Amino acid sequence: MKRGRLLYAQSGGVTAVINATACAVIETARKHRIDVLAARNGIVGALREELIDTAKESKAAITALRYTPGGAFGSCRYKLKSLEQNRAQYERLIEVLRAHDIRWFLYNGGNDSADTALKISAIGRELDYPINVIGVPKTVDNDLAVTDCCPGFGSVAKYTAVSVAEASLDVESMCESSTKVFIIEVMGRHAGWIAAAAGLAARADGDPPHLILFPEIPFDEEKFLARVKATVERVGYCTIAASEGIKNPQGQFLAEAGTRDAFGHTQLGGVAPLLANLVRDKLGYKYHWALPDYLQRSARHLASKTDAEQAYAVGKAAVEYALAGHNAVMPVIVRTSDAPYRWKIASAPLNAVANHEKKLPKNFISRDGYGITAAARRYLEPLIRGEDAPKYAKDGLPGYVRLRKHLLAKKLPAYEIS
Amino acid sequence: MKRGRLLYAQSGGVTAVINATACAVIETARKHRIDVLAARNGIVGALREELIDTAKESKAAITALRYTPGGAFGSCRYKLKSLEQNRAQYERLIEVLRAHDIRWFLYNGGNDSADTALKISAIGRELDYPINVIGVPKTVDNDLAVTDCCPGFGSVAKYTAVSVAEASLDVESMCESSTKVFIIEVMGRHAGWIAAAAGLAARADGDPPHLILFPEIPFDEEKFLARVKATVERVGYCTIAASEGIKNPQGQFLAEAGTRDAFGHTQLGGVAPLLANLVRDKLGYKYHWALPDYLQRSARHLASKTDAEQAYAVGKAAVEYALAGHNAVMPVIVRTSDAPYRWKIASAPLNAVANHEKKLPKNFISRDGYGITAAARRYLEPLIRGEDAPKYAKDGLPGYVRLRKHLLAKKLPAYEIS
Question: How far is CA B232 from CA A376, B241, B394, in A?
Fold first, then answer.
């Protein structure tokens, strides 16, 4: 019985658990005897008719996907233009779907992807091609609307909190005669969700991190230096978790403002080295800084169990919604209780998600601007709970999988991405 | 029966597993009903008569030590002067030992500590104070002589290999439209042991890391850029593991040579941002870079089981050697077989260890200078084998312990460290 196929695509920055969603999509579709195609490198591959036949992947490989970081089918940063600007692109997409008998399209991404998914659903209706489009949430930035949290965030939050706790124990051991100020720079250019998660490392008053620098709070150099000094004098050292997105009072990103090297180039990346510079010049303390960059969002070895389970659950629900004939919706995470933490999956209309941005609530940041509140802790803590370690091979490395990624034969003429 | 006490001190940069050694020392001594004192902040605390009474720590706390990173009693970077230059300091140390009936001294550190331990043993004999001094190996740098490997290294090696594998999966997912060059900077200012360990992430030809930059190989800008370009063209992206200690052909550290900011300050830290700059300016590729810094040596959550077991074993052996009356020796790790990997503990004279440095063997670096050989793999791989995760608390964080660190009452006049 030929019932049409399901197309799955990954979009935007990948996470430690986006493949858990992919795994759920494929496992659930297989249960319903539906073939899953996956776009190679996201929507770009769909446009180019580069479609991976997931039926060629073994059951073991799909199981291993659940524990493999990165985006197994490839992702991309590519936003379709508006329908008015590039209608041909949407028409091409429908052509590809039609050529391969694709009836269900699952788009796994953030805000932009929800918007694209919505448009594809609309154009399908307009062109009289029946396609059920489901958005599937994913982003380490945790900034999607409607859903209580975003798959991918809990794991980067756990990585950040654990790393802050561990590195601080190191610094604490040696602060009397060595490093006194330690700065860790975390992702989150526009919202301080990950910076806030660093605060989970502190279980008791005085525990590190001693200062969190949020993008929501303009950076006040004098106040910052005074706090660092006071902390070093009181605790012996000072751990700082700084968001990459902190801004000066003029609203410029600190990492971009007035930092040119000897050749006039903008200095590369890094709020952490800038802050370290400041601490050295103004306070004279010995410092160290870390910038985990991609390590924080790919650390599948330290994934949060809550996060991995939610990533799987949204993938499973997406397939079930699609097969039940839903369209232009997204499975979202609904928190039904803080303590004990309970959640369930519900369906939300894509237009409630697309192009909205969930900000870090004001009452999550402590009054002094350098810490998190009890409300933040109540929200964040369940998201890093539980471990979900991958199996390790005998060689000491996790058993991550690379798929075969067998491409279907093309049926359409080549297409140039504009 | 009063049999004297044992003093334990941690020295130099801490590791993810130095507390596993501390745990072994205390657990083994307790079995022999010997009281263990621990110097607060290493040798500096011994000189100041700041002695922690480990009997005040619960059994559960000592058990948890095995899984806690950092140095639980505090460490320091302080090298005693030579006997000729500061004899008074050595005499003070003997005075402290005598005042607290300390018969055994275990010094847990690297090359310098082995040297200090040797001197303390000598001065004890000279001053007619019977003290058995045992050096206990520890260093992430893996540069101690005689021992096959150093406790602390295996875990940073595992962290590095896993991080390279994980971040590379992330980069690989998106390289078609986004980041093409990823650089991770690793510790090892004078030897490429940790850089070499990054190479373990590559299981098959073409696997990341594609280039390793060793401090042993002068940095050749042109050749480097050509290799990066060729790799991006062949594989789609290029992962580079760079030692913080790489030097230009003139022998200067790259991170120090000619990198001043707009104010004339030496640019802070980081070979990685320098290389990223170069890649951007000369090749125009989109890049990302990571600098895990202390995260790499404190990541107890990802410790190697081999490493943790060896860290425990040297602590246990050190106590047994001490109580058996050995002096001026160090328990070292002897590899008896590569495959299957087998090791045992043996006793080595401290003067064979002190002030020597184990270099990365030339035959560990591939002919082209950018990779590791089969010989390197044979040596390194067993050291990252096995996992030894800490227990996690309900809040999602590892159950790391902070000790009470109850100080003994002082019996001597205050002492100023010169």
Answer: 42, 15, 44
Question: Chain B contacts of A163, Cβ < 8 Å?
Answer: 295, 299
Nearest-angstrom CA–CA distance, B108 and B188: 20
Contact B273 A276 (CB under 8 A): no
- A377 within 8 A of A365, measured Cβ to Cβ: no
Of chain A, the end-to-end C-alpha distance in Å amounts to 38
Closest listed residue to residue B207, CA positions, set B237, B180, B248: B237
- What percentage of chain A carries pLDDT values higher than 90? 89
Helix H or strand E encompassing B134: strand B132-137
In B268-392, the DSSP E strands lie at: 287-290, 329-337, 342-349
Peptide bond into A340 cis (omega under 30): yes
pTM over 0.80: yes
Q: What is the pLDDT of residue A396?
A: 98
List pLDDT tens digits, range A21-79: 999 999 999 999 999 999 999 999 999 999 999 999 999 999 999 999 999 999 998 88
Q: Which strands make up the sheet holding A5-10, listed edge to edge? A: A51-53, A36-39, A5-10, A102-109, A132-137, A329-337, A342-349
What confidence tens digit (pLDDT) does each residue in B230-256 have?
999 999 999 999 999 999 999 988 887
Judge: domain B5-141+300-356, CATH 3.40.50.450: yes
Going by CATH, does the domain composed of B153-298 fall within 3.40.50.460?
yes
CA distance A322 to B93: 75
Q: Answer with the residue of higher pLDDT: B170 or B262.
A: B170
The B51-53 sheet, strands edge to edge: B51-53, B36-39, B5-10, B102-109, B132-137, B329-337, B342-349
For chain B, the residue count is 418
From A141, A143, A307, A388, the catalytic residue: A141
| Partners of A342 in the β-ladder | A337
3-class state of residue B334 by DSSP: strand
Residue A261 a catalytic site member? no
Name beta bridge partners: A96: none
CATH 3.40.50.450 placement within chain B:
5-141+300-356
What pLDDT, on the 0 to 100 scale, is given for residue A269? 62
- B69:A169 CB<8 A: yes
Q: What is the C-alpha to C-alpha distance for residues A418 and B392, in angstroms, rounded to an integer? A: 50
Task: Answer whether A177 sits within 8 Å of B76, measured CB to CB.
Answer: yes
Predicted pLDDT of residue B164: 98
Contact B295/A at CB under 8 A: yes
Q: CATH number of the domain at A5-140+300-356, out of 3.40.50.450, 2.60.40.1120, 3.30.230.10, 3.40.50.720?
A: 3.40.50.450
What Rg, from alpha-carbon coordinates, does chain B have?
A: 23
CA distance A150 to chain B (A): 18
Segment 238-267 of chain B within 8 Å of chain A by CB: 258-262, 265, 267
- What is the structure's pLDDT at A328? 97
Cβ pair A173:B70 closer than 8 A: yes
Which residue intervals of chain A bear CATH 3.40.50.460? 153-298
Nearest by CB to residue A74, choosing from B14, B161, B176, is B176
Q: How far is A136 from chain B (nearest CA, A)?
A: 18
> What is the distance between the alpha carbons of residues A326 and A310, in angstroms, rounded to a whole number?
20
Q: Which residue of B has its CA nearest to A304?
A: B396
Q: What tokens appear for B126 in the block?
A: 């000279």
Which residue in B35, B112, B115, B141 is the catalytic one? B141
Q: Which two tokens stand for residue B309?
A: 């077991």
Q: B397: which chain A residues are within 8 Å (Cβ-Cβ)?
A: 161-162, 165, 200-201, 203, 384
CA distance to partner chain A, nearest, from residue B71 (Å): 5
**pLDDT at A257 > cutoff 70:** no
B109/A contact by beta carbon, under 8 A: no
